[in-house]
Design brief:
alpha+beta; Immunoglobulin-like; 3 domains; 6-stranded antiparallel β-sheet; 32% strand
């Protein structure tokens, strides 16, 4: 009877998704690909034959991401532990414009491009100053002087050590394009965290202090507060274009309860919204691009559903926190 009870609770609280990762063109298996929840500490590696298993019980409703060296990442939003997955990845192919320059001119241009890339990729915050890209030479940078546009390509994941927050980030870059003329940035990719497990007490305290400072007023903080209808206490104020303050019921709807009650909520499309956090920020503007934008209790939200401008648009890779993070 004890054995039956243990089996019941194990199956109730542990949901394992299984599958195999394959090359889209050849059908061959892709070994040692990463399978993870984007922006978390939760993930695994496929074996040499492309097979994997992952416990998804902690993030049941978040998309599952699969990335591999030399391939574009795939994100799954509709999957079930009841059925084994066959996941096909597409090889990365970069068409680069040929440019003939001297070695000296190339080295000078490369240094300038790296500086510009780091500024836009990592950000310009205090945390960014303590971030290091350990494999910068794996990144190809092309600057188009006619259009004043910088593009970045990498078949390998970008490896980042964040010495401010105590994380290592593996970032699978899909697209990076920065336009200097209008200060526009297109940055898409997927990433997984690994925590610095230092035993140094002072270092731990430093990391926790920096994480808390980074979290307060962040997008993650905003959506977590919105989830529990606690924007006021958290320090957020949301107004519409008519300068009218909006409450929870005006901002949120809950559409789908089919999987689990209170697991998915949606932010309504109210066009432009203005968000203030305490008095230290001049404000942020969000433009909701879809009929509604899903978000969950971890602070995850559909990244393709919102355009950000203002203070909340400034933090970049250096200011990312995993969705596993809990403020202390």
């Amino acid at each position: 009877m004890l054995f039956l009870l243990i089996s019941f609770f194990t199956s109730a609280y542990s949901q394992i998704v299984k599958g195999r990762i394959l090359d889209q063109k050849t059908g061959n298996s892709i070994g040692f690909a990463s399978v993870y929840f984007n922006g978390t500490l939760v993930g695994t590696l496929a074996n040499q034959n492309g097979y994997f298993e992952l416990d998804i019980s902690k993030f049941l409703l978040m998309p599952l991401t699969i990335s591999a060296l030399g391939y574009y990442s795939v994100t799954l939003t509709n999957f079930s532990p009841d059925k084994a997955l066959s996941i096909y990845l597409t090889p990365k192919v970069f068409e680069l414009k040929e440019v003939v320059v001297s070695a000296k001119a190339y080295a000078k241009a490369r240094r300038g491009n790296i500086k510009l890339f780091k500024t836009q990729f990592l950000g310009q915050t205090l945390n960014a100053l303590k971030c290091e890209i350990t494999n910068i030479n794996d990144i190809t940078l092309i600057y188009d002087s006619d259009n004043e546009t910088l593009k970045a390509f990498s078949s390998k994941p970008i490896l980042i050590v964040n010495n401010a927050l105590g994380y290592k980030i593996t970032y699978y870059l899909d697209k990076f394009e920065y336009g200097k003329t209008n200060n526009s940035l297109i940055l898409t990719g997927n990433y997984v965290f690994k925590e610095d497990l230092t035993n140094n007490k002072i270092q731990k305290q430093f990391f926790e202090k920096r994480r808390k400072t980074t979290y307060l007023g962040s997008r993650m903080h905003f959506f977590r507060a919105l989830w529990v209808n606690d924007l006021d206490s958290a320090g957020f104020e949301v107004k519409n274009g008519g300068n009218e303050k909006l409450n929870y019921d005006e901002l949120v709807t809950q559409i789908d309860r089919s999987k689990s009650i209170d697991q998915t909520k949606y932010m309504k499309n109210l066009n432009f919204l203005y968000i203030n956090y305490l008095s230290k920020w001049g404000g942020s503007v969000i433009d909701i691009l879809k009929d509604s934008v899903c978000f969950d209790k971890h602070g995850y939200f559909d990244p393709f559903g919102i355009n950000w401008d203002g203070e909340m648009a400034k933090p970049r890779i250096a200011d990312l926190l995993p969705y596993d993070y809990l403020i202390k």
